[in-house]
Amino acid sequence: MSIALYHQIFSPRMLVSFLMGFSSGVPLLLTLSVLQAWMKEEGVDLSVIGLFSLVGLPYTLKFLWAPVLDRFTLPFLGRRRGWLLLCQVLLMGALVWLGMADPGKDPWLVALAALLVTFFSASQDIVVDAYRREDLADNELGLGSSLYVNGYRVGMLLAGSGGLILADLFSFQQVYLLMAASLGIGLVTTLSCREPEVGAGSPKTFKEAVLQPFAEYFSRNGALLILLFVLLYKVGDQMASTMTIPFYLELGFTKTQIGAVAKLFGFWATILGGLFGGIIILRVGIISSLWLFGILQAISTAGFVLLALLGNSLSLLAGVIAFENLSGGMGTAAYVAYMASLTNKKFTATQYALLSSLMGIPRVLASAPTGYMAESMGWVIFFGCCTVVAIPGLFLLHWVSGLSQQSP
């Protein structure tokens, strides 16, 4: 490893990316699985618990208020760090309020608190994404994005699995207070890191902040092709992953075997995939990495076909899960870095929020019919189709790789 590469990997900027990812990952499951467990324990009706999934809407709609964060600069800490500090303080306060509420007596007050948590969490995500794009050089976006994603996964692991384990030892109120305190890591990071220097400036009017990000993007050569690529690059991988648990169970694996293998091989393979992917992107660039990781993702999906043909084999299950998560972690690192590279630094928050919202569309729409497909086709043909679905994304990559990426 060269000295220059060593300094890039272990630079303070990369540590900031990881810690900000952690701070973004903690709140997500606290308004989903952990809150659902708490409400169930308090005897809340299942129909009400189901409706609580709607509190996650701010994560999908965050592009609507992202222009505010591009247009205005608070009178402390700078354009990005000022908003980041405010969002983090309000997020911690909302988590404390949620922890002090009583789902059994007033579920709708809990819903309001949870909605505020997701709103401030989504707002934090907007600013963190913009900060990372503006703080890192273009050739550092891959590694920085992979460390951010890994930090996000660690935060989710702490809040999701850790929160449920702690709920057996402490009250849910105490768990939420502990999780709110853990966000102090993000707060200290914001106060300690530097404010990015952006030569592109910021929008001068609110109208410019709302309209110009879209006008500027769609004025580019191949803008629609690039959006189509963003929608399709990981669609095969996402379709296959939707049905993996029913697939494993139908092959006769026990829930303990699935959980142990997924936890031991899956989680750490994803973490290593993101880290290795970031280092590879640093060496060969984003476009070359998208090619390599896209092909690996398709091959890993084909691994499910092999598992379907050979049947119940624990060693093969471990290999398939490890390879699928390793390639998926690499692909996500390149994918997130590519989206960041598309943004104009004058409108980073708005353009990245829009692209990341679009990223979630295929996960929902393409995954919806997968159960019907698997039932009618059988597992071998279904996973074969998921492998083939990866090809259009790679085909589009052939075209978008020739288009000039903007890096103002």
Order of helices and strands, N to C?
A: HHHHHHHHHHHHHHHHHHHHH
Which oligomeric state applies? single chain
Beginning-to-end CA distance, first to last residue: 30 Å
Cα-based radius of gyration, to the nearest Å: 21 Å
What is the overall pLDDT average?
A: 85
Give unreliable regions as ranges.
404-408
Describe this structure in words.
78% of the residues lie in helices and 0% in strands. The chain is mainly α and 408 residues long. α9 (141-167) runs antiparallel to α16 (255-284), α13 (223-232) runs antiparallel to α21 (379-400) and α17 runs antiparallel to α18 (314-342). It is globular.
Summary tags:
single chain; 78% helix; mainly alpha; disordered C terminus; 21 helices; 408 residues
Quick overview of this protein structure:
This protein is an all-alpha fold. Helices cover 78% and strands 0% of the residues. It is built from 21 helices and no strands.
Topology:
Elements: H1 3-9, H2 12-30, H3 33-41, H4 46-51, H5 57-61, H6 66-71, H7 79-100, H8 107-135, H9 141-167, H10 172-182, H11 184-192, H12 206-218, H13 223-232, H14 235-242, H15 244-250, H16 255-284, H17 286-310, H18 314-342, H19 348-365, H20 370-377, H21 379-400
Helix pairs in contact: 2-8, 2-9, 2-11, 7-8, 7-10, 7-11, 8-19, 9-10, 9-16, 9-18, 13-19, 13-21, 14-21, 16-17, 16-18, 17-18, 17-21, 18-19, 20-21
